[in-house]
Amino acid sequence: MTRLLDDPTLARLSQTDPHPTTPLSGAEGARAEALLLRLTTTPRTPGRDRTRVSTKVRVRIAAAGVAAVAVVGASVLAVGPASATDVLMQAADGAAAQPAATSGEYWYVRSTVRDGSQLPYEREIWKSKDETVLRDGASAALAAAEAGADELDPALIRTERISDSTEGGTRPTTFGDETSLTWDELDALPTDPAKLRKVLDERLADYDVDPDYKLWNEITALLSESPATPELRRALWEVAATVPGVELLGTTADSAGHDGTAIELDLTARRLPRYTVVVDPTDGTLLESRIESGGQQLVDTLVDQGPTDTVPEVQPPLCGPGSVPETSC
Which label site among 64, 92, 240, 321 has the fewest CB atoms less than 10 Å from its CB? Predict the structure, then answer.
């Protein structure tokens, strides 16, 4: 509650008697709607009575003397139905309210991937500051598609160490799509959205592609497979809300059946993909990413993520240097 009362929009509304003396700006109206949604919803918890919890939230609000909830509601009605910006701002607040990850040497992410007409496969990745270990079934899914098989060959699913060799040693683990941020650089990113946008734009400036395309790619990559802090996740969602052309598709479920809200960025008019993300606005989790291009769809669905100190034993590659027996690729 303390954090909510610190919000400038909510603070302004809470001081009104009984209505704002001046109209809310468009940005304040969108912020007010996101705050109202956050105040009257709770994070998804199995088995919890959402109605009962919502009532408790309202009781706490009343006890704190926040009479501004009614005023927030009025401002929401004034600015119209929810938009993609509203949902992304709510996701930002939800992400910031989550507890920081406990310590662990590796950041672990497990997801299910559906690539076109191929069989779905699991992808697991472990990243420490010094190494990246990957286990996925991409090769097995491709082989199954070529053979017309209806299941994956487990012998083709390998756990391998991924490293970028450089002159004089091994490049440290990086996060993001094109920015290639080290763990320390990720931790050093600003959590003010304007400053974060400036840093990302500067790091992406050398890539001669559509600016909205590369920024959206970068944001979703950092949200899906990095140990970004709750405050950084908040800033990333706030930057995402500024990308032109984002559209609200509405409530939906990801491929695993988790409830969320779908947001689309359609760049097909620029001969680029159509992106859809399914986000849980209550906690800022990016549940699923869908990329459509050339009639094919790539779907990546989050299964699990978090810190860990354990990593599986690495296996020899299927082909190339180090394969057993050595086989050319």
Answer: 321
